[in-house]
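Example: histidine kinase.
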Amino acid sequence: MGWLLKEFRLAVYFLQWVLLLAFCFFYMDAPDSSYHSFAVFLVIAVAYVIILCYALPRKRWFLLGLVDMGMALFFIMETGKWSSPFMLYAYTTLLWLLMVLRLEQVLLIVILFLLSASLLQEWLPLTMVPTDMDFTTLRLILDIMMWAIMALCMFALLRSMKRAYAKSYHLFLFLQKVVSSPAMNLCAATEQMVRRVFHSEQAYLCLYQDREGEGDWKREYFLNTLLEMGADEWSHLTIQLLDDYSGRKDTYVCMPLSLEGEAWGCLIFSIPAKRSIHRGERLLLRFISLIVCQQGRQHRIKYELAKSLHEEMRRNLAQDMHDGLAQQLFFLSAQMYQLKRSLPDEVKVSVAERLEQIEERIKWCHGEVRHTITHLREFRESEQLHEAIEQLLKRMTNGTDLQVRFTSKGRMLEEELHVLNAIYRMIEEATANAVKHARAHVLSVSVEASTVQVKVRVRDDGIGFVSEEKGREENRYGVVGMRERIAQVGGTFHIRSKPNEGTEILAIIPRKGVEMYG
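Written out as structure tokens, the predicted fold is:
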């Protein structure tokens, strides 16, 4: 709409200049014409039109309108009063005033114009009247110009309709993609649509909670910048001057995303420094924000449903293992005890070693089953990974002299469950090795989550092992299983150990949307 009004204003300015030149040409030859008055009027009009080329506050537009109508009124009184062709000049002035001023301001100017005209028509004599031939020629020129201006306005209207159609088409494609592809990347699709609709070089959808766009470091940079500025408390569209990731300042439109009082994020896109956002674009941005929030809510509902189903599966699996496999192992252990007691003494001596091995293996299986059941239940009840790890470390080191130091940095919201499970199981295996074999005094566990990766480090100050025994020790301590588990989630696994210098295990796992190299 702003582009259309600008085109109309330019057309009206052009029409005013044609009217001015035509009037000057014909009235210069009229009897008793005032060359001095027309010269002064021409100088004022030139300066006036130059001023119109610049963006002005609304108060100054009001003053310019008064000046323009005052000049028109003077020449109307001099050239035929209400039948003067200069009335057309006054009409064009009112037309562009309607485009830049409020209705009550335009009405005030009209009232002042009518009051002044009713007073001046008795005082100012009619001095400049052209011949009938000049009037006929002037009307012909004015008719031609009016048709030309109407054609120009129609052309501007068609251009505006074309822009509106292009924006509507891109918005339709976005809606179609949202409906047909529920699993799409909402951030990327929204940013692409905004860049096309608003002809912007940069656009970012920064979500506060449902971080499905994590992995794009540019988006994360602007998200952190907005949070530092308190954007989660904004309620209206604002235009901000922001530093981008290269340190360059640029002008951004910031549209807060909220639904039912809950802040979801902020949609930002770059614009030229002097450009403003008109009412139609604000309405369009509000519509886009509602679509994004509704789609985000659908994503959250689906995630919560999947999470609930996953937790239900873990709970059922733990219960089935407790009621089935664990009970059977307990039954086998009891049967083994009865078998040992029922054997004759001469037979016990020959099979004692074999029975001990079987009994130890049953106990080991029973312990593994109980441990797995505990893991399933703990992980289900803990909402955050660091809470589950803290419970794990506390349980595994309880009753030992091992000093545990656990640190967690960064956020891991909405991370996929199999990634969280791989991290948890790796720390569990590494801690078990430190407790059973390392003879360590201090165990350090850290989980650092950045925008591109998760770094998990487990270090002890135990006895370590030599490099020649590395392959055998890794098989013994379950390192192969840890390495395979980390590889399944796209990560890399490293282990370093020296005699009497402890062991360090490091796993680096890429975040969603980031590919690991190296």
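Residues 132-180 form the longest helix (49 residues).
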